[in-house]
Structures are given as structure tokens and as C-alpha cells.
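hey m, so remember when u said the C-alpha cells were messed up on ur end? i reran from scratch. heres the input so u can diff it against urs
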Amino acid sequence: MCTLDFYEGQGRLDGALCSYTEKDKQQYLRAAYEAGIRNIEMESSVLAAMCNACGLPAAVVCVTLLDRLEGDQISSPHEVLAEYQQRPQRLVGRFIKKCLSAA
């Protein structure tokens, strides 16, 4: 799910401005989860809008770093985060390879 910002739109409690309580945050995140949402970010709508305006096909691949129902802070070790960073690159690489071999 793409939101307009990192804090309020994602139900975070650790921003400079916060109108949510912990209870509000949990209700918001549980409703999102029940709707099938497994990742929240804030950049893809701008990328999609720009690509659409230019007539460029585009896709967004996201990595989920933590379970927001359990907390907001990333505590994974550097090695795990480095592996997460490689996953979308490998996925997109395989997709491109498959498309090229089918052509």
C-alpha cells in the first residue's frame, strides 16, 4: 500500500507529529492486514505517476523489513538487511531474463 507520508499515513507513533494512539495504530494496521496489505511504503505512487505521464511501463518491487504489528523499529542485523536488498534485484533480473528468452 502506498501512503502519502512515512509517519501519519503509515500509522507510526515515532514522528514529530502524531495523532494516533497505540490502539489506533494497531486497529489501522490490523484492518490493512485483513484487507491483504503486507507492505506499506510512500514512493511508488510518484514513480507510477511519472512513468505514466511519460508513457513508460513500470513496476514496483518492495521489500518488507519488519512486522509493523510487532513494532516500528528495524532490528535486523546488517547481513540480513543486505540480503533483503538483493532480493528485488534478483527477482527483477529473473523476470527480465524470462521475458528476453520468450521473445
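this time it looks ok to me. Residues 5 and 59 are 20 Å apart (CA to CA). if urs says something different then somethings off w ur setup not the seq
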